[in-house]
Amino acid sequence: MTLQSACSIPTIAVLGLLAVPVPGAAGAGEGAQDVRRRLTQCRAPVIVTQPADVTIQSGEPATLTVVATGLEPLAFQWYRGESGDASAPVGTDSPSVTTPALGAATSYWVRVSNPCGEASSRTAVVTVSGLPAQEITVYLGPGDTVPLVLVRISGGTPFLMGAPAAERGGNASEMPQHQVTIAHDFYLGKVEVTQAQWQAVMGWNPSRYYGVGPDYPVYDVSWSNIAGAGGFIDRLNQALGTTAFRLPTEAEWEYAARAGTTTTFPFPTPADWDSECGSFPAAEPHMWWCGNGGPGTYPVGGKLPNPWGLFDMSGNVWEWVQDCWHEDYTGDPPTDGSAWDASPAACWARVMRGGSWQGDASRCRPAARHKYYPDTWGHGINGFRLAKSE
Length: 390
Hints:
This protein is an alpha+beta fold and about 400 residues long.
């Protein structure tokens, strides 16, 4: 028996008792020219030009592009997140992707594939400049260990509050549309109040069945639990030695939810978007509703923010505001951003805004309104967001 050197056996590699074909080795009946032709034809993707980092203004989309070579056709799948994280696919099968309007830095990458293999791009970072608001952080609880972040909202810019008569998903309670100018600057919670924040102030957690954890929104809380005597806001102000924290007014809430936009949602949508629980791909990166949510709430900040850097203004949980309920905007609604209140005896219901994981997409529009009795705690859908006066 004669041993040959490894370099004289180009067609196989011996691993134990198994013969494993070496890439590029000739198959049965294949000559050298056939091998070269096959290898030339089956070319795995190679990324020639990586998607570049870009900087945009707040509220604008970004376009990212990759250039790749290889055996065609090439397939492209874009993802939101760090390279290798395939949990958030976006875009279509294209070497370019246009993001939704962004209000915070967001990362993207792309995987290019064909039958011969695949290649992953670097992480491309879309940086957002010109954010109109600065943030402040206050700390809650024993040892000041629970942060609460608020975003400064600048007033002074007129906006149309409510829905136009022809708005898809609209209803009479949102009409007539009327001009409001918030006469002051204020701060608004970057996210919905969380269970950790409620626990830090109140010492207990009312949220039990629809998502439990420190970063989940607190839910099953009534307006009275929050803004009534001895409620969350009273205790928070007392602990911090201030009277500045409060619920936002209905006008403040809608102004911040619209974030300078005038469309049905603060992100681009097709004209025929599904107003109920059906497919609504344009909304997927932005909100939790019955089309993608359930059977409960989700940790705050899991979707993209609106152009002013506020998360979950659409969906997840309904948010109590200060105002008493009025059936529509006829009469004399305030035009300066103050609350449309009434005497306690006449204020039989309070307003809620933003929609929830349980509701239709139409309820998540910035113009959408809802009402509940002040002492109603809800069924996994009633939460809130803090405001703070300057």
